[in-house]
Amino acid sequence: MDQQAQALYLAAGLLVVVAALAMLVFITLRTKRRADEPEPPPAVGRQQAGAAGAARGGRGRGVGRLQAGVRRRRAAAAAAAAAVQAQPPSDAGSSDGDNDEEAGVDAAGGRRAHAREARRDGREAERAARSARDAKREAYDERRQAKDAEREAREAAEEAAAAEREAARQAADDAEAAKWMGQISLDEAGDAGADAAANGPGMLQAFVNYIVESKTVALEDLAAEFGLRPQEAIERVRALEAEGRLTGVMDDRGKFIYISREEMAAVAEFITRRGRVAIAELAAQSAQLIDLNLRIAPAPAAGGSERQLLLDDLAGDAPAVAVEG
C-alpha cells in the first residue's frame, strides 16, 4: 500500500507540472499574438479628423459636401487596404488559436498518459513486491522443512542406535547369565516334589552344610546337587545370607566363597591395625587368613534349634568384610 500511495502522489505531481507548463505556453502564445497585431492605418485617423472638422462646420456647404465625398471615398479605400493588410495577421491569430487548442489537447492527453503510466508502474511495483514476499516465504518454508527432516533423521538414527545398544546389552546379559548359571532342565512332574524337598528343614540344613564343607562352590553345581534351577540356588543363598546363616561372597564367575565370621573378623582386624592397605597386600593377607580348603562340617547338636544347626564357623558377631575372590 505504501508503494501504491507513493506512485499516486508522483502521478499527481506530474499532472500539476504538466498543467503549469501548458498554462505558461498558452499565456506566451497569447502575448505574442497581441504584439503581432498592426496599429490602425493613418487614413482611418484622417477620416476621423475630417469627420470631426465637418461636424464643426466648413467654409461652404457645397465644398463641404464635395470634400466629404472625397474623404469618404478615400476612407473607404484606406479601410479596404487596411482590411487587406490586416487579413494575414488575422489568419496568424487563428492559427495561433488552433495551436493553443492543440496544445491544450496535447497537454490533457499527456496528463492522462502519465496517469496511466503511473498506475501501470504502481501495479508492476505491487506485483514485484508480492513476488518478493512469496519467494521469501517459499525459501523460509524450504529451510524449515529441511531442518525438520534433518531433525527427524537424527532422532531416528539415535533411536535406532539406542535400540541396537539395548539389544546388544540384553544379549550380553543373557549370554553371561547362561554362561555361569547354565540351563537345567527338570521334568514338570518332579518340580513340585523337588521344591518341597528343598524347602524342608533337613534339606535346608544339608544345603548349608554343603556350602560350608565345600568352602568354594559353583552355583550351577549347587543347583544340580539339590535339584534346583541356578536362579533358585542363587536366591536361596542370598536368603540365607540375609538371615545370617551363611557368610561369604559371590564372584562374577558364578561361584560362592564361604567365609566364616572368625575369618571375616581376622581380616577386619588386619585392616583396622594397618589403617591403609593396598589391594595386593590385602589379597595376600586374606589368602593367609581365609581357609579355602575343602573340609567336613561337624554334626549339629541334637535337639538344637535351626540356627544352632550352623557350624561353629558361623558363630560370632564380627563385622563383615567383602573380599573379592
UniProtKB/TrEMBL annotation:
GO terms for molecular function: ubiquitin-like protein ligase binding. It comes from the Eukaryota. Gene3D superfamilies: Winged helix-like DNA-binding domain superfamily/Winged helix DNA-binding domain. Residues 115-172 have a biased composition (Basic and acidic residues). It holds the Pfam family DDRGK. Residues 44-54 have a biased composition (Low complexity). GO terms for cellular component: endoplasmic reticulum membrane. Keywords: Endoplasmic reticulum, Membrane, Transmembrane, Transmembrane helix, Ubl conjugation pathway. The keyword Hydrolase does not apply. It is a single-pass membrane protein. It is found in: Endoplasmic reticulum membrane. Its main location: endoplasmic reticulum. InterPro entries: DDRGK_dom-contain, DDRGK_domain-containing, WH-like_DNA-bd_sf, WH_DNA-bd_sf. The chain crosses the membrane at residues 6-29. Residues 34-63, 79-176 are annotated as: Disordered. Substrate adapter for ufmylation, the covalent attachment of the ubiquitin-like modifier UFM1 to substrate proteins. Belongs to the DDRGK1 family. This is DDRGK domain-containing protein 1. The lineage of its organism: Eukaryota, Viridiplantae, Chlorophyta, core chlorophytes, Trebouxiophyceae.
